[in-house]
Predict the 3D structure of the following.
Amino acid sequence: MVLATSEYFWADLGSLDQALERRVAEWARGAFDACAVLRTPGGRVELYARRGEPRSSKSLKMMLRSLFHNWNQALEMEDNSWLQLLTREEFLRAAGGAEEESRAPPPSESTPTADAPSPPRRVWEGVFGALPPDFDERALRAYHQLKGQRLVPCRA
Protein backbone atom coordinates (compact mmCIF):
# COMPACT_ATOMS: atom_id res chain seq x y z
CA MET A 1 0.00 0.00 0.00
CA VAL A 2 1.37 3.41 -1.00
CA LEU A 3 0.90 6.20 1.53
CA ALA A 4 -0.16 9.61 0.27
CA THR A 5 2.51 12.23 0.84
CA SER A 6 2.80 15.95 0.27
CA GLU A 7 5.09 18.85 1.10
CA TYR A 8 2.03 20.89 2.09
CA PHE A 9 -0.39 20.41 4.96
CA TRP A 10 -2.98 22.05 7.19
CA ALA A 11 -3.43 21.32 10.91
CA ASP A 12 -6.12 22.46 13.35
CA LEU A 13 -4.20 22.95 16.61
CA GLY A 14 -7.24 23.80 18.70
CA SER A 15 -7.89 26.72 21.05
CA LEU A 16 -4.40 27.87 22.02
CA ASP A 17 -3.69 30.88 24.20
CA GLN A 18 -1.77 33.72 22.56
CA ALA A 19 1.54 32.84 24.22
CA LEU A 20 1.41 29.26 22.93
CA GLU A 21 0.28 30.49 19.51
CA ARG A 22 3.36 32.77 19.32
CA ARG A 23 5.55 29.86 20.41
CA VAL A 24 4.10 27.64 17.67
CA ALA A 25 4.60 30.43 15.09
CA GLU A 26 8.22 30.90 16.16
CA TRP A 27 8.89 27.15 16.01
CA ALA A 28 7.14 26.81 12.63
CA ARG A 29 9.24 29.55 11.04
CA GLY A 30 12.36 27.53 11.86
CA ALA A 31 10.91 24.10 11.10
CA PHE A 32 9.22 24.69 7.73
CA ASP A 33 10.17 26.22 4.41
CA ALA A 34 6.91 28.22 4.43
CA CYS A 35 4.21 28.56 7.04
CA ALA A 36 1.25 30.57 8.27
CA VAL A 37 -0.23 30.35 11.76
CA LEU A 38 -3.76 31.77 11.71
CA ARG A 39 -6.52 32.20 14.28
CA THR A 40 -10.03 31.47 13.02
CA PRO A 41 -12.99 33.65 13.97
CA GLY A 42 -14.00 30.81 16.32
CA GLY A 43 -10.70 31.13 18.21
CA ARG A 44 -9.00 27.99 16.91
CA VAL A 45 -5.41 28.12 15.66
CA GLU A 46 -4.57 26.65 12.26
CA LEU A 47 -1.13 25.89 10.88
CA TYR A 48 -0.52 25.89 7.13
CA ALA A 49 2.99 24.72 6.27
CA ARG A 50 5.34 23.43 3.59
CA ARG A 51 8.09 20.94 4.40
CA GLY A 52 11.11 20.64 2.17
CA GLU A 53 10.29 17.03 1.37
CA PRO A 54 6.99 15.16 1.08
CA ARG A 55 5.70 13.50 4.26
CA SER A 56 2.69 11.37 5.10
CA SER A 57 -0.07 12.73 7.32
CA LYS A 58 0.89 10.08 9.92
CA SER A 59 4.47 11.41 10.01
CA LEU A 60 3.32 15.02 10.33
CA LYS A 61 0.84 14.12 13.09
CA MET A 62 3.58 12.33 15.03
CA MET A 63 5.82 15.39 14.69
CA LEU A 64 3.16 17.77 16.06
CA ARG A 65 2.11 15.39 18.85
CA SER A 66 5.77 15.06 19.91
CA LEU A 67 6.24 18.81 19.84
CA PHE A 68 3.24 19.46 22.09
CA HIS A 69 4.22 16.56 24.36
CA ASN A 70 7.75 18.00 24.73
CA TRP A 71 6.22 21.37 25.62
CA ASN A 72 3.90 19.67 28.17
CA GLN A 73 0.88 21.01 26.29
CA ALA A 74 -2.31 19.24 25.28
CA LEU A 75 -3.08 19.08 21.57
CA GLU A 76 -6.83 19.13 20.92
CA MET A 77 -7.74 16.41 18.44
CA GLU A 78 -11.50 16.12 18.04
CA ASP A 79 -11.26 13.52 15.31
CA ASN A 80 -8.79 12.07 12.85
CA SER A 81 -9.17 14.98 10.40
CA TRP A 82 -7.24 17.56 12.42
CA LEU A 83 -4.39 17.36 9.90
CA GLN A 84 -4.81 17.17 6.13
CA LEU A 85 -2.34 17.02 3.28
CA LEU A 86 -2.74 19.79 0.70
CA THR A 87 -1.69 20.39 -2.88
CA ARG A 88 0.45 23.43 -3.64
CA GLU A 89 -2.56 25.26 -5.08
CA GLU A 90 -4.71 24.53 -2.01
CA PHE A 91 -1.88 25.69 0.25
CA LEU A 92 -1.36 28.97 -1.61
CA ARG A 93 -5.10 29.68 -1.71
CA ALA A 94 -5.64 28.86 1.98
CA ALA A 95 -2.46 30.32 3.48
CA GLY A 96 -2.64 33.53 1.45
CA GLY A 97 0.87 33.58 -0.05
CA ALA A 98 2.69 32.10 2.94
CA GLU A 99 5.49 30.86 0.67
CA GLU A 100 6.53 34.43 -0.03
CA GLU A 101 6.11 35.55 3.61
CA SER A 102 7.54 32.46 5.30
CA ARG A 103 10.51 34.13 6.94
CA ALA A 104 8.66 37.24 8.11
CA PRO A 105 9.41 38.46 11.64
CA PRO A 106 7.18 37.15 14.45
CA PRO A 107 4.04 39.11 15.39
CA SER A 108 4.71 41.86 17.89
CA GLU A 109 3.68 41.40 21.50
CA SER A 110 1.52 44.52 21.34
CA THR A 111 -0.57 43.29 18.39
CA PRO A 112 -2.77 40.38 19.43
CA THR A 113 -3.42 37.80 16.75
CA ALA A 114 -7.18 38.08 17.27
CA ASP A 115 -7.08 41.59 15.71
CA ALA A 116 -5.53 40.27 12.50
CA PRO A 117 -7.65 40.16 9.34
CA SER A 118 -9.96 37.19 8.97
CA PRO A 119 -8.02 34.07 7.99
CA PRO A 120 -8.81 32.38 4.69
CA ARG A 121 -11.44 29.70 4.63
CA ARG A 122 -10.41 26.11 5.03
CA VAL A 123 -9.87 24.26 1.80
CA TRP A 124 -12.99 22.12 2.19
CA GLU A 125 -15.15 25.21 2.79
CA GLY A 126 -14.30 26.41 -0.72
CA VAL A 127 -15.59 23.14 -2.18
CA PHE A 128 -18.68 22.69 -0.03
CA GLY A 129 -19.50 26.39 0.06
CA ALA A 130 -20.04 26.31 -3.71
CA LEU A 131 -22.76 23.66 -3.48
CA PRO A 132 -26.42 24.72 -3.75
CA PRO A 133 -28.28 25.13 -0.43
CA ASP A 134 -30.46 22.06 -0.94
CA PHE A 135 -27.58 19.78 -1.99
CA ASP A 136 -27.60 17.76 1.25
CA GLU A 137 -31.33 17.04 0.98
CA ARG A 138 -31.05 16.01 -2.68
CA ALA A 139 -28.02 13.83 -1.98
CA LEU A 140 -29.80 12.12 0.93
CA ARG A 141 -32.88 11.45 -1.21
CA ALA A 142 -30.72 9.98 -3.98
CA TYR A 143 -28.84 7.84 -1.45
CA HIS A 144 -32.05 6.40 -0.01
CA GLN A 145 -33.44 5.82 -3.50
CA LEU A 146 -30.32 3.89 -4.51
CA LYS A 147 -30.23 2.04 -1.20
CA GLY A 148 -33.83 0.94 -1.76
CA GLN A 149 -32.89 -0.41 -5.17
CA ARG A 150 -29.94 -2.31 -3.67
CA LEU A 151 -27.63 -1.00 -6.39
CA VAL A 152 -24.89 0.06 -4.00
CA PRO A 153 -23.50 -1.75 -0.97
CA CYS A 154 -24.73 0.06 2.15
CA ARG A 155 -23.81 -0.40 5.77
CA ALA A 156 -25.85 1.11 8.56
About this structure: The chain has two domains: 5-120, 131-156. The chain has five helices and four strands.
